[in-house]
Structure formats: structure tokens, C-alpha cells
Amino acid sequence: MRVVLLMICLVFLASCNSQPCRESVEPLSIDLKVERLEQELFQSQSSEQVEAFLENQQDFAQFFLHADQYPADSVLANRIFGLIQNPSIDTLYQESVGAFENFDEVVKTLEDGLGRLKMYYPNAPSPVVQTCVTGLYNDLFISNDHIMIGMDFFIGEGATYAPQQIPHYILRRYNTEHLAASILQFISSQYIAKSKGDAMLAEMIDYGKSYFLLSKILPCTPGNILIGYTEEEWVDIYKNDAIIWANFVQNEWLYEADHTMKQRFIGERPVVYEIGDKCPGRIGRWLGWEIVNAYAEKTGASVQEIMAETDFNKIFTESKYKPSGS
Predict the structure, then answer these.
(1) Residue 47 contacts residue 59 (beta carbons within 8 Å)
(2) Does the model's pTM come out above 0.85?
(3) What is the dihedral of CA 114, 118, 121, 125, to 10 degrees?
(4) How many other CB atoms are there within 10 angstroms of residue 167's CB atom?
């Protein structure tokens, strides 16, 4: 079983909304089971009814609410019922419901994405989708069996109560627009063979493979959404891709093995100051995606072949990558 918090999860990418859908396979038809647990939970009139809810939803209680950390379900039920009675939670609940008014569209995107993933990998899962409001307790739990969503984390910019522990440059991706890409990137990552080697380039290309696969299973989702950049950031990096590439080459960062150095270009940061005060974080992931795109175009390798390739130097060399401004 595999679990992820959205904040540390691999994140999303895309192209501008005006661009056409990318070439991809037709999806298999999938009908995901969706359970809106918040509706049942918030109808509870007593802690006993909450405890009955937990008994009926044992996986949700265990994986999302961490019921095993409590001495008895009754203790957790009392705590949740107290939360439901809190006047502030009504605002959180109503805003969550409003944010998920068009959740059917997110589910359709998930179904189409998983349907395409099954075209490449027939054993890809079809998890049960569950939503709930838990007072900003948990954002996401993802496994091959379940997709559990804490709706109150994904209200978006206008939320009255925003998660306090998440930096703003990450929190801006916490909305329903980014939700399907985030979930599908995590699920699809299990089909990516990790590159052999400690060089930054190896990790860059592994991320690139992840975004390449995501772009194939979500061909109509803009690239900036897939990687979690704003449209302005997305446009700027392509305007300055020659400068970005020159920095990596001239400073010999591609084969850097020091973890701290690698995190400066691959990890979560608001800005990569080493390149420029407008260069967005995770720029190494984007560059890895560009290299993988170039490799796919130059070699004609299939999606499965690219995901299985562990020789990052082969991908880099055969990509003959050059920035668009070159």
C-alpha cells in the first residue's frame, strides 16, 4: 500500500489552456465508485452515530483518520462529534461543498486518466474515491484501493480557514483544478523504473518520465497544471529556457551528487535564486521533462520503453536536448 500527502507528493505540469490536447491513446471505459462521506458524517446527531459511521467505514477511519492512534473508536467518535458541533466547522463545510460543486468533472478526469493508464498498463488500479471534511486534519490518502480526499484542504484561494502548515507557494496548488493531476501522478509513478545513479540528472529525468507519463494520460490538462506552475511562470520559463539550460551546463549541476545541492533545483522552493529571482522552484524537474520529451521525439520510443529505461545517460545523450531558444 502506498500513501502520500499532497504537500510532499510529486507535483503537476502542463501547457496553456489555449493549446490543443496532446496526442494520446483513447481511454478504456472506467466507472469509479464515489462515496461522499461528508454528507453521512455531518448528519450525525450523536457521538454514537459517529461511532457507527466509523465502524461502517473502517478503511477511512484507519487510513485517513488514524483510528489506531486512539484507545477506542468511541474516543475518536467523541472528538469528531465535538468538531461537528463547533460553529466554525459549518463555514468550512459549506465552503468545501461549494468548492466541490463540480466534483463530477474531477471524477471524469480521473476515470479518463486511469482508463488511459490501463491502456499502457492493464493492471492499473481503479480505486474507490471518498471525500470528507475533517477540520483540516488530512489532505490526501492514495493507494491502489482508495483515493481519500480532505475537501477542506482544496477550497482554494478564498477559503476562510486555510491550512497553516503549508507554505503559500505550495498552497496555491490546493484546489480542485490541480487535484486529478496530483492524484494520477502519484498512482502512475509506480510504473516508472528509477534511474541508476546519484547524479542530479538521474533524478531530473525520473521526474521528467513521471510528467511525460502524466501528460499522456491527461492529454488535455495544461502543462502548467501538471507540474504546478502558474501560467505566468510557465510562459517565463520557455522564454528563458536557454538561460536556464546554460546555468545547468556552465555550473556543472547536471552531475552534482550532493543532496543539498540537488534539492535547490529539484525540491520545493518558491524561487531558484541561483538562476534568477523569477525562476520557479523544481526547475530541474521541468528540465528533466523537456529532456524526456526530446528523447521520445528523437527515438520514437514507446511510453512503456521510456518508463522502463534506467540509463539516464542514454536518455540524455539520445535526446540531443537543446532549449527552444537555441
Answers:
(1) no
(2) yes
(3) 60
(4) 11
